[in-house]
Design goal:
The chain is elongated, with a radius of gyration of 20 Å. The mean pLDDT is 92. A five-stranded parallel sheet has the order 7-6-5-8-9, sandwiched between helices. It has nine helices and nine strands. By secondary structure, the chain is an alpha/beta fold.
Length: 203
């Protein structure tokens, strides 16, 4: 029978139920979004993934809370596919300015806003590449498919090599606590354009 010394939880609903079932075992949660009393009131301690999340924690709980930012493993781009080979796979002409975005196709990630903005700005000799899947997928396909300068790549679990194909990385969040893809883009040396969300501002 499992007899843990500490229970570590993630996400609100799971944290709420596990804390109630933990008995006398100390329970710690990693907070990825705003603190919610009903989810974390029975925990002994909290870990926030960014400084702005710490500000949402009640004053009486702050003494039992630490900030441990999210992180990503450095990627060895010298051992990966070259930028030129990735552009060939995308069938891009020389000199094309590539805007790239990685994220779930969901309302808070706002890939529809990105496509709308890209088409509105209409930068000459530019191409938009989006990686992702999700509940907005049908809408995104309808918006993108009529345009030869937009490519939908779907989900790719081996996404890291693709960052070097981007001239600019764009993350058009409507809300977000801490975008790991921003760290991946930074690791690749990509210039980044993102919306003014709490997570991005914390970086």
């Amino acid at each position: 029978q499992l007899q843990p010394d500490i229970i570590h939880t993630h996400h609100g609903r799971d944290s709420r139920y596990l804390a109630k079932l933990s008995g006398n075992v100390p329970t710690v949660a990693t907070v990825h979004m705003h603190y919610r009393q009903k989810d974390y009131q029975h925990h002994n301690g909290l870990i926030c993934v960014s400084n702005w999340l710490l500000k949402t924690v009640p004053e009486h709980f702050v003494k039992n809370t630490v900030v441990i930012p999210n992180w990503v493993e450095p990627y060895d781009y010298q051992a990966s596919l070259t930028r030129e080979s990735l552009h060939e796979e995308l069938q891009l002409a020389d000199g094309t300015v590539v805007f790239g975005s990685v994220g779930r196709f969901s309302p808070e990630k706002a890939p529809d806003d990105l496509i709308e903005a890209f088409l509105l700005v209409n930068i000459p000799n530019s191409h938009l590449v989006l990686f992702g899947k999700g509940e907005l997928e049908d809408k995104i396909k309808q918006m993108a498919l009529p345009h030869e300068n937009i490519t939908l790549m779907g989900y790719d679990k081996n996404i890291r090599p693709w960052y070097q194909a981007f001239d600019i990385f764009v993350l058009p969040l409507r809300s977000g606590s801490f975008g790991l893809v921003l760290l991946e883009a930074m690791n690749a040396g990509c210039p980044i354009v993102t919306t003014r969300t709490d997570g991005a501002m914390d970086l």
